[in-house]
Specification:
It is a single chain. Helices cover 69% and strands 0% of the residues. With 396 residues, it is mainly alpha-helical. The chain folds into three domains: 96 residues, Serine Threonine Protein Phosphatase 5, Tetratricopeptide repeat (Alpha Horseshoe), CATH 1.25.40; 77 residues, no CATH class; 120 residues. Helix 5 runs antiparallel to helix 6 and helix 8 packs antiparallel against helix 10.
Length: 396
């Protein structure tokens, strides 16, 4: 926000002076839309006003594909982290019009992928997903974006290929420009690790993890590795909670505790639960989701809900392990209901262990196989192709 306003001021000190520099009416309209987006008022109001401005521009300049594509992403930006399906489909309809006129328009392709990157709508995004890497081959993020659709469909071979390409482009840029490890594409690296693990390619995921130097992305990826493999090396470097956002740190404690329960280290599990509750209470309700942040910016509303769910998961697993089976299962059932109410997020799941899957595992241990199957199937509705649930269904 500050950087955008500074850029406008470099053009001219005031809005009127900037408008005077525009040579055509169309340029003036574009400039006014930017003034709205980065002007006065709270973010929600500005986002809504900007979307209306871009909608007006699309109507005023019907042959301007840029105005239409920017209107599509502006609509997505009005959702403020809540995946409003009606708005997402309105954005998709606009982007589809652009795509029909220019199937290589990078904006239309990008916004179609975002509009469709959930398990219900993802089949509609396959055309765009299969094109984007070819259209924008030199952009690391463009190479990554198709995996939003592939993740939503459990297409792990394709997801791996997309993120391998994304990482390669980013790492080549680092080499070419003499950049540092801080400039790696950790978003794509995290998704690549998760996709490897969904294919059971543990050693490749382990090797990838070994290349991660920065502490915060490393501990995030270490958490994913631990919950998918059951391996927790209790390395101090990986459980340092002095840096990072609330959700990443709570995920660490959640996974540390769940793996400890699985290995019968109950004192360690209880300590993780205590630390998780303390962390949530001390952090309040407005911490950023960090790695989960959606591309349109804004403050995620789901942080506290997800934190609460992860603590309930761990407490339920501890109760079950302590022989309080019914009490533990009731707590997991409540946590699963809460998770169902959270807006769908693309990519590796948060909590790292889907609640329906954890609930299903405890039901299976309790001998309630049909109920367990139902929970694993519900996991796959939100996370198609997830290895742990598919494997357990096959074993029932």
């Amino acid at each position: 926000m500050a950087a955008a306003r500074a850029a406008l001021k470099r053009l001219a000190p005031t809005a009127d002076e900037r408008r005077a520099l525009a040579a055509t009416e169309r340029e003036k309209d574009y400039l006014e839309s930017v003034e709205i987006l980065y002007g006065e008022g709270d973010k929600v109001s500005r986002d809504n006003a900007y979307a209306k401005a871009m909608g007006r521009m699309m109507k005023k300049y019907p042959n301007d594909l840029e105005a239409a594509s920017l209107y599509a992403v502006a609509l997505l930006g009005t959702c403020q982290y809540e995946r409003n399906e009606a708005t997402y489909m309105r954005a998709a309809a606009v982007a589809e019009e652009v795509f029909a006129k220019n199937p290589q328009h990078p904006g239309a392709i990008h916004y179609l992928i975002h509009a469709y990157d959930d398990p219900v709508h993802a089949p509609l995004g396959l055309r765009a997903a299969r094109l984007y890497g070819k259209v924008a081959g030199s952009a690391s993020h463009a190479q990554h974006m198709p995996s939003h659709i592939f993740f939503a469909l459990g297409m792990w071979d394709e997801a791996i290929a997309a993120n391998v390409a994304s990482v390669a482009v980013a790492d080549e840029r680092i080499k070419r420009k003499g950049l540092t490890a801080a400039d790696r594409n950790y978003h794509s690296l995290t998704w690549l690790e998760y996709a490897y693990l969904q294919e059971g390619r543990v050693e490749e995921a382990r090797q990838l993890l070994s290349t991660i130097e920065l502490p915060v992305p490393r501990k995030h990826m270490r958490t994913i590795f631990a919950i998918e493999t059951g391996e927790w090396d209790r390395s101090p470097a990986d459980i340092d909670l002095s840096k990072g956002d609330l959700i990443t740190n709570l995920s660490i404690l959640n996974v540390k505790g769940l793996v400890a329960v699985a290995h019968g280290r109950m004192d360690e599990a209880r300590q993780a639960a205590v630390e998780a509750k303390t962390l949530m209470e001390s952090s309040g309700k407005t911490e950023s989701l960090g790695a989960m942040a959606m591309p349109m910016g804004g403050e995620p509303p789901n942080t506290h809900r997800l934190a609460e769910i992860m603590i309930m998961q761990l407490e339920g697993a501890i109760l079950f392990a302590d022989g309080k089976l019914d009490e533990g299962l009731r707590l997991l059932a409540t946590a699963a209901t809460k998770e169902d109410a959270v807006t769908f997020e693309f990519g590796p799941p948060t909590p790292p262990k889907p609640t329906h899957e954890l609930y299903g595992e405890l039901l299976r241990k309790a001998g309630r196989k049909e109920e367990a199957r139902e929970q694993f199937e519900r996991t796959l509705q939100r996370a198609p192709g997830r290895r742990a649930s598919e494997t357990q269904i096959a074993g029932l």
